[in-house]
């Protein structure tokens, strides 16, 4: 199906926005009026630029405060519209968006609104233009899509239809099923946006918090299914306002936007739709109307089944390997041709790479191996969803591994799982060094926590959901001593792959937060004692935390004292499951967590995150433990 994006959804100059949209694979654009007004290009030059890029101009928007106003004001509105329609002919746009009025002088009179829109459509038809009337969620008198449609229907003009916007519909809690009562040929345009579900004024919500489909909490796919059942033949177009896209680069935002529409079409596909009807046009300006094409097909999701490895890069391996040894890991193998060592305990595997370029802030988690039942299929899906495919420098005898880059730059390798993986997969590149894996006090990687640049957080959630097929949990805010951190976890159904995506609230604070690897153990107390007895200190936890635990929960004799002694944090969920966990010091940007889940606990200890963050800040500030 054709795809389009509003230029307001991208940052930069209009030329930069158009280039980014074209390179991301969009078919068309909505030209936002302000982008035209502030730029040096004339409408004819913009039209030529779009043609050179292979883009159609699908919509010009917005025309505001037109209908149901006093006669003198409406006469001025028609004069304004006449000028804009002439401009649109030069631009090559044949549809204009008219928003429901918010003018204080507008009156609550549907008959007058219909008469004014009919007169506007008469004028538009003279220019070969269609008018798409949209209900703003905060419209003065018209704020719902069904109300807007009743006015359009009453006007009864062939050049007048409606524009449906998922944000305006879903933010008001309107039932989208009624969309199916609108003839598809009268739906002139469809704008799509998702949003989180906060409680705030709808106008502020709209202007600052819209996001691409799949990044928020709206059922955008359900709405699109209703629209397609009408026979709608136009494009799926994105109109997103938020503070992140205004400051992020246009090129990566356009790729993220296009990925969201590819994933949305996959989600919508099972719906049955009427055959598309021919769109209503009024003397088209540039070409015959474009008919709808089938929804785009992408390779099916291949959900990872486990962590094959986590790769740490560092210029100085000793601090990291000292921590790993204290945790009970053994150096079991070395890469045949690269300075990479494999440290293993149970099924938990850590690669320590001393040959890669390292940031100035030291050790970091650079790559993740994901066990996959079909690595080739996983890679094909990733590429179809515009994930950057990474070239891999390897010797001829090295195992071929497909890898893509996540939005934060983390390399994701798709690795074969099963008994043959040791001989035919990534493990075949390593030669044993004679040390068997340690007895599993730690038995696997429980989860990874990856800090995201602030402007990539929503993109990262969408990436992990769509490209990897992971399920996203609710977003959680946790208190940091210097603000808030936002976190959202993604996981596979059985919890063998869990990734917590985290971002600091401050745009300037996107590099200071550490990454961590959490190791699952069946006895966190024994694991913590072994670590401490090996001479490696755990993160100190304030005594006040344990006083609060004593107030919230009842413990067996001596249990709380043991937690206090070892710095173990405790949490309990509503179903009675419990979580016990503790942390190592930070080396560079990396620290480790020992974690024990009992009773089916699936959380990450969000209640304890502020305690951990404050303790890490205290260590970093004091310089104790050599913290990174």
Give a description of the structure.
The chain is 31% helix and 24% strand. The protein has 628 residues and is α/β, with parallel strands linked by helices. It has three domains: 4-191, TIM Barrel; 206-272, no CATH class; 306-626, 2,3-Dihydroxybiphenyl 1,2-Dioxygenase, domain 1 (Roll). The strands form three sheets. Strands 17, 18, 19, 20, 21, 22, 23, 24 and 25 form a nine-stranded mixed β-sheet that branches. Strands 1-2-3-4-5-6-7-8 form an eight-stranded parallel β-barrel, surrounded by six helices. An eight-stranded mixed β-sheet has the order 14-15-13-9-12-11-10-16, with helices on one face. The chain is elongated. The chain starts with a strand and ends in a 6-residue tail after the last helix. The model is unreliable at 272-292, 505-512 and 624-628 (pLDDT under 50). It comes from Streptomyces pratens. Its EC number is 4.2.1.118. It holds the Pfam family Glyoxalase. A divalent metal cation binds at residues 134, 165, 191, 239.
